[in-house]
Design brief:
Layout: E1 2-7, H1 9-18, E2 20-21, E3 26-29, H2 33-39, H3 44-64, E4 74-79, E5 85-87, E6 100-103, E7 107-108, E8 112-117, H4 123-137, H5 141-151, E9 156-158, H6 163-167
Antiparallel strand pairs: 1-4, 2-7, 3-6, 4-8, 5-6, 8-9
Helix pairs in contact: 3-4, 4-5
């Protein structure tokens, strides 16, 4: 199963240094039954794209909680055994938890298929979105518009061997 693990640049640096994502449990996003129902598509590429975008939103939440982190959303795509990705079942299903899975233990970074990251030109919009996230969560439509602005930026694809360049 392909899962998408949301991170920040400091989180990616830590994973790169340790050689693994972890320790567990890790929150990730994948094509789950709930995501299939929510997205209403049978196209696996569209569903995986939706899971990637769910992880990008979670990365934005990590940025909102870490004002020192560079303002770039980071998502690591990793292949894990189906049995290792348990659907998160704590509490009621919310819009934010659609597609969410838990991975019990660490995952070797060598198993990563790719790293997805914002381009430099997304920094201003991602910064504004991270700053507006709390107000958007409280129902502020203007703040939600700002958050949605970050989602207009496609994450770029990077090979795992390009992590050192991403960390700059």
């Amino acid at each position: 199963m392909r899962v998408y693990v949301p991170l920040t640049l400091p989180g990616l640096a830590q994973a790169h240094k340790a050689g693994e994502l972890g320790p567990g449990p890790l929150t990730a996003y994948a094509v789950t039954p709930a995501l299939r129902e929510w997205y209403v598509s049978d196209d696996i590429e569209e569903l995986e794209y939706a899971a990637l975008n769910r992880a990008a939103s979670a990365s934005l939440r990590l940025l909102a909680g870490d004002p020192e982190a560079p303002r770039r959303r980071i998502v690591v795509a990793v292949d894990v055994a189906d049995k290792d990705a348990a659907t998160a079942s704590e509490g009621p299903l919310t819009v934010d938890s659609i597609g969410e899975v838990r991975i019990a233990g660490p995952v070797r970074l060598a198993k990563a298929a790719a790293v997805h990251a914002d381009a430099d030109d997304a920094t201003a919009d991602v910064t504004a979105a991270a700053d507006a996230l709390d107000a958007a969560d409280r129902g502020d439509d203007d703040a939600q518009f700002v958050v949605d602005g970050a989602e207009d930026h496609e994450l770029l694809w990077f090979g795992v061997q390009e992590i050192p360049a991403l960390l700059g």
